[in-house]
TrEMBL record:
<feature type="domain" description="VOC">
    <location>
        <begin position="6"/>
        <end position="130"/>
    </location>
</feature>
<dbReference type="Pfam" id="PF00903">
    <property type="entry name" value="Glyoxalase"/>
</dbReference>
<keyword id="KW-0560">Oxidoreductase</keyword>
<feature type="domain" description="VOC">
    <location>
        <begin position="151"/>
        <end position="268"/>
    </location>
</feature>
<protein>
    <submittedName>
        <fullName>Ring-cleaving dioxygenase</fullName>
    </submittedName>
</protein>
<dbReference type="InterPro" id="IPR052537">
    <property type="entry name" value="Extradiol_RC_dioxygenase"/>
</dbReference>
<dbReference type="InterPro" id="IPR037523">
    <property type="entry name" value="VOC_core"/>
</dbReference>
<keyword id="KW-0223">Dioxygenase</keyword>
<dbReference type="InterPro" id="IPR004360">
    <property type="entry name" value="Glyas_Fos-R_dOase_dom"/>
</dbReference>
<dbReference type="GO" id="GO:0051213">
    <property type="term" value="F:dioxygenase activity"/>
</dbReference>
<dbReference type="InterPro" id="IPR029068">
    <property type="entry name" value="Glyas_Bleomycin-R_OHBP_Dase"/>
</dbReference>
Length: 311
């Protein structure tokens, strides 16, 4: 049996790219660690936000399509993305969200307090205080390491067939059931970030992909060899798994579990600093080699974006 350390990244579809940058960098204070293009649709950005080093377990990525149709959050998707913040940081985030007129609600589950809100395009997010996880040493405006988002706390999965999704989490991904409360069952991986997954036990009406929805959730593989083991393991257990795809900053394989959520397994290396320095990550448009000859054309087509402090 194999076990993943936890979430590698989560990828979502959003609207205007500058609005996306303003929310995740300008308000949430995450670092834009990579500005590249969708390898399957190079006229669209692929933007990566994470902690200061762009470490696995901290990265949320986006395909921003200005003026695209709104999606519907539902079964077959990550319904809620959870971020972990340092213990004692919740009051800071309540004030910060209020400052930018972001409506939020407070809730509690499994003995933890959550701050729930939406981004500009309708993605459902929440913050939870956790002692686990490394400090994020990225400072942006008023967001300093003492309050900065560490990375993923986890996610709530919406499944059209929860029993199948639960079986996949336990028997394929190697997560352990650690609790049940109301409609939720909680699972945990062995890592200290991106390690808590809650699943709604009743089937959720199928969602529709579009702006404001999560496209896929990616799990961690230690390296290329580990990923090939995962590929064989997943295939041998009756799931249709893809060939290895080179995503430049990691290698990826994909399969759709039987609750219809798209799972990816991504390698931790090589990371985001191999084609630009740690200090300059995210400042320039980086293209895979096959698109470099089209750089001028792509730069003309892509909407200009800037990381900026918001008032």
């Amino acid at each position: 049996m194999k076990k993943t350390e936890g979430i590698h990244h989560i990828t979502a579809i959003v609207g205007h790219p500058q609005e996306n940058v303003d929310f995740y960098a300008g308000i949430l204070g995450l670092r834009l660690v990579k500005k590249t293009v969708n390898f399957d649709d190079p006229g669209t950005y692929h933007l990566y936000f994470g902690d200061n080093g762009g470490k696995p377990g901290t990265i949320i990525t986006f395909f921003p399509w200005a003026n695209a149709y709104q999606g519907k959050i539902g079964g077959g998707q990550v319904g809620v993305t959870t971020y972990a913040i340092p213990t004692g940081a919740m009051s800071f985030w309540e004030k910060r969200l209020a400052k930018f007129n972001i409506k939020f609600t407070r809730s509690e589950r499994f003995g933890e307090a959550y701050l729930q809100f939406e981004d500009f395009h309708g993605l459902q997010l929440e913050l939870v205080e956790r002692a686990e996880g490394e400090t994020n040493n990225w400072t942006f405006g008023d967001v300093t390491p003492s309050v900065a988002i560490k990375g993923f706390g986890g996610a709530i999965l919406y499944s059209v067939n929860p029993a199948e999704t639960i079986q996949t989490l336990q028997d394929i991904m190697g997560l352990e059931k650690v609790g049940a409360e109301g409609e939720l069952i909680r699972f945990q991986s062995y890592g200290n970030i991106g390690n808590i997954i809650d699943v709604i036990q009743t089937p959720v009406e199928r969602g529709e992909m579009g702006v404001g929805t999560v496209h896929h959730i990616a799990w961690r593989a230690k390296d290329d060899e580990d990923q090939l083991d995962w590929q064989q393991f997943v295939g041998n257990n009756g799931y249709g798994v893809t060939t290895v795809r080179d995503r430049n900053y990691f290698n990826a394989i994909y399969f759709r579990e039987h609750g219809e959520i798209l799972f990816e397994i991504a390698t931790d290396p090589p990371g985001f600093a191999h084609d630009e320095s740690y200090e300059t990550m995210g400042t320039e448009l980086k293209l895979p080699s096959q698109y470099e000859k089209f750089r001028e054309r792509l730069q003309h087509k892509l909407i200009p974006i800037n990381v900026r402090e918001l008032e």
